[in-house]
Amino acid sequence: MTTLIIARHGNTFGSNDTPTRVGAKTDTPLVKKGKAQGSAIGHYLKDNDFLPDAVYSSTLQRTKETAKLALQACGISTHIYELDIFNEIDYGVDENQTEETVIARIGKDAIEKWDKHAIAPEGWHVDPDDIIQSWRNFAHQISKTHDTITNNVMDLSETILVVTSNGIARFAPHITDEFEDFAANNAIKLSTGALGILKFSQGKWWVTAWNIRPSLNECG
Fold first, then answer.
1. What is the pLDDT of residues 38-52, one digit of tens each?
2. Three-state DSSP class for residue 158
3. What is residue 20's DSSP assignment?
4. What are the chain's domains?
5. Which of 107, 173, 203, 219 is deepest in the core (most CB within 10 A)?
């Protein structure tokens, strides 16, 4: 059985900062809390027997740093494969704008459609079909590469960790082919430092948990 852990990077804004929509064109580092969230992800993985056999991130430093901290907390050392398919979306004219400014431009309804159904507002440079297909291709690759069951003779159960961003992670449940049902019963947005768990079993992907936010207390 292949387990796919999808984690959103940690915070890039401090408590005294004004958050903005940070997309693919803004390569911001983690703040102190964000680093703690990265470590908390690692402790959660270790404590729940989800030690990753392979790790992927976007090319942006906030995801690479989160992945590195998670691995350190797990106590393991492995290569982090950087793939641009996991880079955050491009928020276009709303890049680095406050939520108040974004809502003033596109309206609350547009934000609600994005957060509930992953329908991108006008002015954002994002192709949902392309993102969905990238997730499907990736899921097919890892299920084929990391999941081998032949007449019960060999059963390789491996865990794959992907650290990405909010705009990309929400499309991952499409690999189950039941996205609408999932969206009707879950908030598709992952919080910063949170993760979702999907498993490949009997030829199908399933979401077994979503938006788990490991406690920072686990970091010690």
1. 999 999 999 999 999
2. strand
3. B
4. 2-219 (3.40.50.1240)
5. 173
